């Protein structure tokens, strides 16, 4: 028994050592020329939210685990809703950290706490602050998971004090409301208030656990002819005023909520990651990264409205098309940027991040 236990221990140690080496290699690929301001030295990154931030938490029946997702990074489907890296990877890069391990991946590993060195990603594609028409833990449950780790002494108070948090809310709550209520938008503003109020509760709770700096995304411009999901029935050309006003109202309420939270808390720990401005800048080709026209046309697209990127028919035949050069497309599928799209967004966000991640 002693020999067997020793062998198991050695295998576990070797496993963790190899994972550490592989993680370092991944970071070398991912990290190319980090831009880390000298006054930013956080120890860990804690991520909450949806598919814009998820790096592999959804179960393997989800589309992000199917080809051709992940073809540019890590070279195969790995749970990212893109052909490669997503916004989390670029935020981690900015902070000089490895992209934190997905919580579900960590739970299934035998290596334990060593894999939490860079923090944890709790984000789960398709979720929101409330339950949505997608499955998966909402943001409250995601924060519960961090609390469980704290109770299990996976992190110290100092770990949290020297950490930052990235919170993504891209609109799954809103789409669920619209899908449930059809064309009836009378109660939409009231619902948006409820969403933002719950988001503010979540932000305050994350800060209460000890995280000292928390960035939360505003809604991207999916009402302004700038998200393919909204415009796919019009060949990615027509806008929708209802969606535009929805986004503007949400972002205004979020701005007010963040100001209120900062007034109630010393050191102004909360700030907005402005996806509206950064998406708009990237899609209008205002930065150094240029995209082909029409910018809204996704690289990977179902052959008809009943199919999506990664779809196969009953015989295993592909029911989608892929563009020749994913780097030429801002969007990977009808809802998510490509790796190059996220790189352009990150480029537009750097000044935003430098302004607020400044307290170290």
Radius of gyration: 20 Å
Number of strands: 8
Note the overall shape: globular
Which range best describes the helical content: under 10%, 10-25%, 25-40%, 40-55%, 55-70% or over 70%? 40-55%
Unreliable spans are 1-38
Find the CATH topology.
Rossmann fold
Strand order of the largest sheet: 2-3-1-4-5-6
What order do the helices and strands follow? HEHEHEHHEHHEHHEHEEH
Give me the secondary-structure category.
Answer: alpha/beta
Describe the overall structure.
- Helices cover 41% and strands 8% of the residues.
- The chain has 11 helices and 8 strands.
- It has one domain: Rossmann fold (3-Layer(aba) Sandwich).
- The longest helix is centred in the first third of the chain and has 29 residues, at 2-30.
- α6 runs antiparallel to α7 (188-208).
- With 360 residues, it is of the alpha/beta class.
- α3 (103-107) links the parallel β2 and β3.
- The chain has a 6-stranded parallel β-sheet, sandwiched between helices.
- The N and C termini lie far apart (49 Å).
- It comes from Juglans regia.
- Keywords: Hydrolase, Lipid degradation, Lipid metabolism, Signal.
- One of its GO terms (molecular function) is hydrolase activity, acting on ester bonds.
